[in-house]
Amino acid sequence: MPFDDVLYNALLQNRQGAKVELYGGRRVYPQCGCCVSGNTVGVYKDPVAILELSTTEVCEFTPVSVRFEKSFSATSTIQTWEVDWGDGYTTNGAWPPVGSIWHPAGGYDFAGVYTITLKVTDLLGAFDYDAQDINVIVCPPLYPTLPGIIVGAYDYGPAYTLDLYATPPVWVDMKTAQLVVAGAKRPHCLRYVRDRMHGNQWQVFMGTECGIYRYRYFSAANPTWGNWSQVVDVPTMVTMGGVAFTTSAVWEIDDCLDAPGHMYACFGANIPGIPDWNGFGIMYTSDYFDTVDRILYVAQGFWGPGTFLGGQWRCGLSYVQGTSGSTAYISSLYDGIAGTKYVWKTTDHGASWPVSMTNCGHNEVLVHTPYIDDSNKDTYVYTTANLVGVSIVNHYSANGGAGWAGMGQWNKRPMRLAMSPNRGDLLHYIGWSNWGEWRTSTMTHTNLNDLGVGSQGRDVLVTDRDDDEEVLEAVLVGIGAGGGWIHLWDPTQTATLPAGGNKNGNINTLTGGKHIYSVARVNYGFPVRS
Amino acid sequence: MIVGELSTLSNIISIGADDSRGGWEMHFHVMNDTDAIDVNQRVYMRWSPLMGYDYLYGWDGRWWTGFDGYVMPFRFSFDVAGSQVTAVAQTTDGLLRRAWCQGIGFQDTGADARDHYHQFDSVTGAIPERMTLGRIVRHLLGYYDQLGVPPGTNPDWVAHTNYVYHPVQNPHGWITLQYVTTAPFADPGNLDGSMRVDRYIVRESQNLWETLRSIANNEFFVAYFDKHDNFHYCRHPMFAASPPGARCAFTRRLSVGKPVVSNRAQDRIRQVLLHAVTDGGNTMHSEYPSSPTWVYGNIHEQSYIRCNSQDTLDHWAEVYYNYLNRPYTVQWNLPGLAGLLFEINDAVAVTYSGTDQNGVHVEWFNEKFWISNIMVYPRGSSTTGISVLTLESDNGISP
Known about the structure:
- The structure holds 2 protein chains of 2 kinds.
- Chain A is mainly beta.
- Chain A is built from 1 helix and 34 strands.
- The termini of chain A are far apart.
- Chain B has helices at 51-57, 93-96, 133-141, 208-217, 310-324; strands at 4-5, 10-18, 23-31, 41-49, 64-71, 75-78, 83-90, 104-108, 119-120, 143-145, 156-161, 179-180, 199-202, 221-225, 231-235, 248-250, 260-263, 269-277, 283-288, 298-306, 328-335, 347-353, 363-377, 386-393.
- In chain B, β2 (10-18) and β3 form a beta hairpin.
- The longest helix of chain B is centred in the C-terminal third of the chain and has 15 residues, at 310-324.
- The interface between A and B is large, with 52 and 86 residues.
- β1 (18-27) of chain A pairs antiparallel with β1 of chain B.
């Protein structure tokens, strides 16, 4: 601003003075604050956390998520977020969050009301919280709806299926935990057992309806029983020693402290890369016989001690595996749930025989004997009770072990009987008939002996999965009146199929019985019926 | 509270301004009426050079604003015969010193989606609003924000104070932002623009004025209120690309009393070191001179500068060095209320040569000085007064 010339000249005068006036004006009312806004928005100083739950009520172990991308800062920029799930777990990250944020353990372990707290922090360090309560409830046990083999019946991925009809039948990766519950001395005692994996630790969630129990476990890494836990109330999440197990472990649950009612649970292998949820097994012990003391259940990947499976096994259990050198057996099987499948598996030399199987529905039993090489350690599946509609699949009777599966109950009609698909050198005494007895002749390992279709029997499929052409040489075929077909199936078409007869031409066909029906590569499947 | 003339009740003690304070201040008394003024009341002083000019040419009736500010909290004393209010009025910086300011994290989003008013949209529109320190200052006081895409669809009046006048949004405001430099610095192009920053954090403060001043210091700007209570946020004149010339020539005819000259030879700074951050987060450094001038002495070092041009930073270092090593600080007395004709940081030219009689050995011919302090003592209404100006040597700051 240039200086005023006239004024400058005036300043040069040797006498200076001034008119001076002072006025009072109106008062002002200074205000300060955060974004004082004339007529529009008012904004907050600190960031505003806005937390939204996927649900306000959720079952235990059920994944739950939150969203909070609506959080904002009107005065700065949010930099970080943190979710405190209220059960000891926290999740955090940089802003913005990507989609839904899930509970890191896949859900809450125990029922109760938890407060989920969100904290957002802006680049100034200012923060805000928002909290919402979530009600975690105990949902009804899932066993009534378990379909088929229980393995992985809960919807945590497709890996928990067991395909009995693959060729050969596929033992899917038993990444799920398997569960056995011993018979209890009191009804409804052990309510549920679940397992889950946290990091490299196995945990089991146990609970008993009777309120208290104790537990102990051992594993391949710690092959001795640990000490009993203190008496605990249900429910309890138990971490197995904080050790990264690569094999399964056996849990013994002393239910209700009412000895000798023992319960055992065993869990599958810890397979890297498996998500948190590792499936679960579940067994419901109903008000059954007091004579049931215990059932040991050893899942895949674990070799347990000598095993005695005594008493009676409540129907509905899946996947049982005997152990080395033992004479594991289940004296009886009972099925209480329609559609349930049984897996009866022996490991090494195990002579396993369900002494009796009581059919409770349309079920299947798979017998798995992988190391049979001793005719004295055979695998038996036979029935003494009602097995209407039950299929028995004798799977993998290897190395010439004598395996037989038979259902000879008089006047009963099992639906399906299939023999070993792989190296099933010898399959004795397949017969469903009205004969009501088992044949006991000893044959060589290279022949299929004594096929019998009783008067009420259905078709029999005989196949040679390893293409050694042995299996098709049936020695004795008996077809009763009204019996079904006997199918000889060679998938590679290299075998010489005895058309219409057997190796020795010894076919006993009763009046009305059908003949041997030879099939060449009908289907690379497992056609059990023509 | 009297809304009207207070002349007959009042007695102005002094009116002054200081570069370090950034505003004007008036000390005055009000006699025998403790209700005549109120805190935060506006007081306006005007004056007119009278005697020398009028006696020769007659008064031309022109008034000049001497002070326009607001009454700060005051006190009064009394006895049985009367009372006296002792008051201080300050320009709006006095109010801002008492104003709280929240912590704010400003961000230049570089996108057209903003989450809040403290993000700047540097993309949308014909003239994208790059975030500059000047715009941060503007935001702190109050302005019309164009939140939304495209701008104008959702405008809001956003402010942290209610000081800024807007005819609709804030009709009770009393300051304007017309002297706030917001346009981004550009080299070349706009060397005196405000520095662009991508991120800037304003800490919570109980003194908003200090907050504004600190922002200014980070880019060698100055924030001050002139005597008209106009807010200025601009490059400090000394650091301008083209420093302003002298507004007035001081000669011995414009000197009353005894000028006082402080010889600053002992205060020499041997080097200035500046450390700056660019808007992209890179650092720049400048030293002037490149080697310290003297073996002994202080080195002035300053950090947290925001600058996007090395040349400019070098220029600032040189100017700062020259300023800190200025040889003289002069206290110059002007006749009457002439000090009210100046503003702090005005440049003046002084012409003076010593004589054998007074033994002053300075030879100043249009020597450039910068006004750093103004004190005016009216000594009562309609009478003479004296103005005391503090002048700082230019010392080669100006080309």
